[in-house]
Amino acid sequence: MATDSWAQAVDEQEAAAESIGNLQIKDKSGENGVLAGAGESSNKAPKPVAEGENKNAEEDDSDDKAAQSLLNKLIRNNLVNTTNQVEVLQKDPNSPLYSVKSFEELHLKPQLLQGVYAMGFNRPSKIQETALPMMLAEPPQNLIAQSQSGTGKTAAFVLAMLSHVDPNNTFPQCLCVSPTYELALQTGKVIEQMGKYYPEVKLVYAIRGNKLQRGMKLQEQIVIGTPGTMLDWCSKFKFIDPKKIKVFVLDEADVMIATQGHQDQSIRIQRMLPKNCQMLLFSATFEESVWNFAQRIVPEPNIIKLKREEETLDTIKQYYVLCNSKEEKFQALCNIYGAITIAQAMIFCHTRKTAGWLAGELSREGHQVALLSGEMQVEQRAAVIERFRDGKEKVLVTTNVCARGIDVEQVSVVINFDLPVDKDGNPDNETYLHRIGRTGRFGKRGLAINMVDSRMSMNILNRIQEHFNKKIERLDTDDLDEIEKIAS
Ligand SMILES: Nc1ncnc2c1ncn2[C@@H]1O[C@H](COP(=O)(O)OP(=O)(O)OP(=O)(O)O)[C@@H](O)[C@H]1O
């Protein structure tokens, strides 16, 4: 067997070289002052410039979180189903708890109900069932809500904002802060879609590249942006009168607090808002620091929590293939592709170099390949993910670092070209489960193929088997009949 060159701690090298620190698009021209209306195409949104000039390691980490969150949003094309029940803690435990099973029960404005149905939503998601009646109640209720990405939080608060604005008043009434421009833009797109039949409601992006004339007053009812610019627009430039704000949304609180300064800026915005302004905070995770921050932003909150759906290997067929080199691994991959029809696959490599090489070889074989690599800017990664999600490419080759935290539920075949190891070379069981596993009983059946090319990787595979107590069967990729069987 070949010696393990791949099992070096290349992850570290890649993480260090990550250019993801340049998360925000650096366009210093600043000339772009286009305002995007709710009914207009989002490509009219202004290009941002970096919010902080001197990025340090800590901020890189937060950018990484923001990038993960963005890529997850982009790769997903539907709701994450969950079997868990929501946990609710009401501000007033004696008041009745309403939950709805249909959007009709919410008595939405007809234009909004039309928008919701046009988005293909038939019924509220688990978190929306409880969160929506609370957010739409009169008088307005404050809310802290935590649930994993993809469970319908954004759609919920967008509906709340659109329901609360008065389109006859041409001044900002809802503020929504997001950790980065890209994330703000995603929320903006949801506002545009849901508000499609409500064109009187307008939206503007408070992000650094959007330069407005001094002294002007915004007419858009909804302002969405990053905390620094939002604060400037409320205080320094006075484009927004904070006293007229009815709804304040803080999205992705866990990502937000990872960036220095964002907490502070958000709190300063919150302090300028009237007492009766509805405060809403959303987060995918809820560690102590997020909770402390949430309590400072949201007084007298109702709290909704939805436990993350556990991932399982139960619905997954797992195999391993024995090889001697990366060339043999590639050949094995070609044999698999020759024998079974694979709609979409994600292939994980340990290093950027291997990923690049493999992507090249696969495309020479005629495959439509997408490559997600560490040196790409977040916007390039986003474009790759979107093309893959839309089926323009059938194979996505990526490295650990690049795809860390990305949910790949809809991909039916996952190939570990290199097994996941931590920086000490031990099996990374968590990453293995996250790459391969599926959630709950909704989880589709999946196929996972692990490439083993050394004694060390065999050892890692064995330890992964032991850890999950699930047998990984050997697959002989020279035997076409055998490969065909795995697809049945
Ligand atoms: N009630 C619903 N019915 C069907 N699909 C829905 C519903 N609510 C939201 N979705 C869709 O599910 C996906 C995830 O929703 P949403 O973005 O609101 O979740 P989220 O919890 O905010 O996750 P993230 O923070 O990653 O965006 C989106 O594609 C959205 O259009």
From TrEMBL:
Alphabetical keyword list: ATP-binding, Cytoplasm, Helicase, Hydrolase, Nucleotide-binding, Nucleus, RNA-binding
Disordered as annotated region, ranges: 20-65
Gene Ontology terms for molecular function: ATP binding; hydrolase activity; RNA binding; RNA helicase activity
One Pfam short name: Helicase_C
EC numbers on record: 3.6.4.13
Domain Helicase C-terminal stretches: 315-483
Protein name from the UniProt record: RNA helicase
